[in-house]
Amino acid sequence: MTFRTVGFLVLVSLCFSAKLPNSFQKCNRKQPDLKDCLLKAAQDGLSQLAQPVLKDLMPSINPIEIPEATIKEGQGAVEFQQSFKDCKIYGFHLVKLDAFDWNFEKKTLYMGGFYPEFKIHCHYDFVGKILVVPIEGSGQSRITMENVTSYMNLGYEETKKKGKTYVKFVSSEATLEPGLISFNFDNLFDGDKLLGDNVNKLLNENWKEVFEDVKGGYVDLIRQVFTSIVNSLFSKVSLEELLD
């Protein structure tokens, strides 16, 4: 089965060059422990990108704001399209990286690790069936993914601007494996608490089956979010600024 995420846009600022703060660790391509240096620099850098003091470099990554996202219906448990607006995703900066492999010759970057928690807060609007049970509503939603392992494999192109080299990521693949997911949709069935509580309970008791049916859509969502983050950064900061 295949799924697609559509109607997706991340608010990023891409229009000017900038210098990294001195607090960002810099590595030398020729140092023997380059791989370890890059891993440590990336880990520390992601933590710093969650701080509002870097707003001139790029928007904070905690939360990440998404105007609109759509997860297509599955072919089993999830018989409806999930439409979300005004989303905020929390937790990207908490990743514990265990991979950050930069291949300068092949122009690829492989990275990922363990995320204690993703929180996805949105306004939802959908109607259909979940595990053959009718579901309908519009309101606030909270989806929490815990103990997540996720990896990204990105391909990029290089461009020259004023004698400096900039990177644009043009291809990406991702994996997403949560240890637990909890769902909470407010105002189901026009606020009928009994029906709403029962459907939320059904979702949470069967989260694995629900997630697997639309997993491709959520993988695409995370993939596009992360690609937008790195492109937002690399559009402003040259390789010469990042590496000696």
UniProtKB/TrEMBL annotation:
Which is an annotated Pfam family here?
JHBP
**Gene Ontology BP, a term:** circadian rhythm
Q: Where is the signal peptide?
A: 1-17
Provide GO CC annotations from the record: extracellular space
Which family does the entry's similarity section mention? Belongs to the TO family.
Query: What SMART domains is this protein classified in?
Result: JHBP
- Name the source organism: Zophobas morio
Name the UniProt record assigns to this protein: Uncharacterized protein
Q: Keyword annotations for this protein?
A: Biological rhythms, Signal
From which domain of life does this come?
Eukaryota
